[in-house]
Each structure stands twice: as C-alpha cells, then as structure tokens.
Amino acid sequence: MVDITILLVEDESVESIDIKRTLESFGYQVPYVAPNGQEAIYKALELKPDLILIDINLEGEIDGFEAISKIKELDIPFIYLTAHPEESTIEKTKLTEPERYIIKPYNSTELKYAIDLAVQKNRIWKELKISENKYTNFFNHMSNVMAVYEAVDNGKDFIFKDFKQAVENIEHIEKEDVFIGKRVTEIFPEVKDFGVLDAFKRVWETGTPEYFPENRYKDGKDPGSWREIWIYKLPTGEIIAIYNDVTECKKAEKELKTLNKALKKRDEELKYFIENAPVAIAMFDTHMRYIAASSRWIKDYRSSPG
C-alpha cells in the first residue's frame, strides 16, 4: 500500500529509530515520533495520520492506553506495541478496541501485514460510512416517499425494512402505525385489490424495474388516495418502491374538468343569446375571428361566422 502516514509513539529512543527505519523501508511515511502519551495526543490531532503505532507502557503521566482513550474519537486505527504482554494489560487495553497487538521484539513481516490490514479496513469503513450517510440524506430529504421491503412467503407478501420518516404524509396513516418489520398487508389491508403486490412480486422475481401507473387506494383509514409507484430490486434482494401521491393533482384535474364544463355551458348560452339577439351583435376570438353573430349583424354587415 502507498500513501500511508503513521504516527509512531515510542519512549525508547533506540527502539524508535529502529522501528521508524523499518516502517520507512516499507514505504510508509513517519512524519513524527512522539516520546510520550501527551505529545501523542497533540500530534494525532495535528497530523491525523492513517494509523498510530503506540507502545502501551510509555513513561510519564499518560501511558499508551490512556493516550489512545483520548484519541479514539478521531477514528484513527491503532496498533499496540508491547514487550510485556501480561494478561491484565491485554485485558485493560481491549476496552480501546485496537486493531492488533505486536509483541516486541517484533517480526517486520507481521508488522507490515498488520498495518496494511488495519489501514485498509479503516478506509473501507469510512467509505461505507460516507455511502450510508449519502443514502440516509437522500432517503430523508427526497420529495417523494421511498420504502424498502423484504419478500416473505415466497413473494406473496412483503415487510417494511426502511422508509422515509414522512411516510405517513402520503399513506394517510398515523406515525405510530408504521413499524419496520410489519407486513404490507397488515398496514394496508386493501393492497391486494390495489394491485401493487403483484408488481412487487414480479420485480422481486425478475429484477426488472416496473412503473405502476396511478391508481386509487382506499381502506378504512384512507378515504381514497391516488398513487403512482416506481419499483426496483436491490442487489441485496430487497425491493425499493418510490411513491408519488397524485391525489391533489387528481383533485385539480377534476376541478378543472368541472370548470371547463361550466365554461363550455356559459359559452353555449352566450352564443345562443347573441345569435337570437334582436340587435346587431357579434362575438370574436382574440384573433378577431367570428364565434357568433346575430341575424341582424349578418343582415347589416353581410358577414357570418364560419
């Protein structure tokens, strides 16, 4: 591995020179050797190395165990060095969860293996943590609702594995009714008639994403809401359903149809009034084209709609 920075903490000057030389021969960077626990804490905060290699039995007020206890929150992996592997010492230091213990005199090959493994493990953990945070942030701030399900009964039903916190806003259910581990059919008793369970099963079996077109769901708690759903299968075998509540859109469409119907009726009534008016009157559109004209208008101006 390359580009690995190690903070070495060793109070024996001769040993520290030997260890530093060994580490650098492997290509590691050793920017500083701390001779005591207090300096180790300060340098860990300053350098933020990839790994700390520290002697347990340091001279001074703060030994290796105490130093690591204060550094641990930095999430820097560390390996203990010790020439005195007494059981009591090992048991005490286990509380700090070291990556490894290296017994002096150390084997250079074993030391290199331990360092590479510890650094690689920590880097993977950090990458996973970043991915998890991105997923959580996306999950909690998306405008639509996303739920993760696991198949049960060979795909005949599914249980909640995760969901956006605002799920109750779209599902018309109380927050306390949503529990990870509950079956979809338990939360939504009419879901089979709704038809989405069949889509869930197909996606789970084939791995092919599906769009479930807008449909109306209704049960004892939900007076009737419209939803469209995108369904995908995860590499883990679980499925993700992204819900879009189009209920308000449907209401607006209904209101618009009602309004258009009323406007059409008004236009027809106006047209009838104009055509039967005893005076010369006409109605034009915005391009000054005839829409309707009275018989007197047609007679006087010899012009009619059409």
UniProtKB/TrEMBL annotation:
Response regulatory domain boundaries: 5-119
Keyword list (alphabetical) reads: Phosphoprotein
Provide the GO biological process annotations: phosphorelay signal transduction system
Organism listed in the record: Methanobacterium subterraneum
The region annotated as signal peptide is: none
Give the sites modified to 4-aspartylphosphate: D55
State what protein this is by name. Response regulator
Q: Has UniProt tagged this entry with the keyword Phosphoprotein? A: yes
